[in-house]
Specification:
The protein is an alpha+beta fold. It folds into 2 domains: 2-81 and 224-258, no CATH class; 86-220, no CATH class. The chain is built from 2 helices and 20 strands. The chain has helices spanning 2-26, 226-258; strands at residues 36-42, 45-49, 66-69, 72-79, 86-88, 95-98, 103-106, 112-115, 121-122, 128-129, 135-136, 146-151, 156-161, 168-172, 175-177, 185-188, 191-193, 202-204, 213-216, 218-220. The protein has a 3-stranded antiparallel sheet, with no helix packed on it. The chain is elongated and about 100 Å long. The two termini are 20 Å apart.
Length: 261
């Protein structure tokens, strides 16, 4: 009975959908997190009679044919690119990206990583890093005698020094854009890696080349919509139950066949 295998693929697909929803809900409070969506595609079809084939009995052309589906498979888990709400924090190194773009960081192996988590910190040497200690590119050091800093929409960092009225520029933040953001590889810790699918990074000053602007004192919240996620969770649960009922029905049919005398 093919229905057993078909229903099993359906249950597996709904399980993956539930796992994706669970991950979204778990990251409701993750800074800059974009919700994921599981997409599916039908499997191959068994061709008993192809559409347009000539009937062997009377020579007529079959208008639709006979094609039996063999189930479903996951095709992708894609990132939904959507701007999250900006939450005011007041931190001088908290920055939200309003629009497209990612901050570039240097990973421990020297590879470039990208993140929208603007909750930046500074080390004892004044180097600007992420919450996990990864250096933000380009490397910017805040002098120890700076009283406060200001970051404008274009990513220019100004420091206010004791005894001086006018601030001095001490650095310039940049953003990286990609032709296909959904092609980035997520590696955890709010970090992404460039892939062939994403295309090369286009690094530029915020507010130029289609990149977003920076907003100091804010952090981008997760774009997860809990109402939509709960609705999708109910749909996935019902789909799982229906596929399990198909397996039960197929089992009963097989039992009836075995009992035939």
């Amino acid at each position: 009975m093919k229905s057993l295998h078909i229903a099993a693929t359906g249950m597996s697909a709904q399980q993956m959908r539930v796992d994706t929803i669970a991950n979204n809900l778990a990251n409701m409070s993750t800074t800059g997190y974009n919700a994921r969506r599981a997409d599916f595609a039908d499997l191959h079809y068994q061709q008993f009679a192809r559409p347009g084939a000539i009937s062997a009995s009377d020579g007529t052309v079959l208008p639709t044919g006979v094609q039996a589906g063999l189930g479903v498979r996951p095709s992708s888990i894609s990132m939904q690119i959507q701007q999250g709400a900006s939450n005011y924090t007041g931190g001088d190194l908290d920055i939200a990206i309003e629009g497209k773009g990612y901050l570039e960081v240097t990973l421990p192996d020297g590879q470039a990583g990208y993140t929208r988590d603007g909750g930046l910190k500074r080390t004892g040497d004044g180097l600007i890093v992420t919450s996990d200690g990864y250096e933000v590119v380009p490397g910017i050091v805040i002098p120890n005698d700076v009283r406060s800093i200001s970051i404008n929409a274009q990513g220019e960092i100004y420091g206010y020094f004791a005894g001086q009225v006018q601030p001095q520029q001490i650095g310039q933040l940049t953003l990286a854009g990609f032709a296909n953001e959904k092609g980035l590889e997520a590696i955890g810790s709010n970090l992404f890696l460039e892939t062939e699918a994403s295309g090369p990074a286009n690094v530029a000053v915020p507010g130029t080349d289609g990149l977003g602007a920076l907003r100091q004192g804010y952090l981008e919240e997760s774009s997860v919509d809990p109402v939509r996620e709960m609705t999708d969770l109910i749909k996935a649960q019902r789909g799982y139950e229906l596929n399990s009922k198909v397996i039960s029905a197929a089992d009963q049919m097989m039992a009836a066949t075995v009992q035939v005398r």
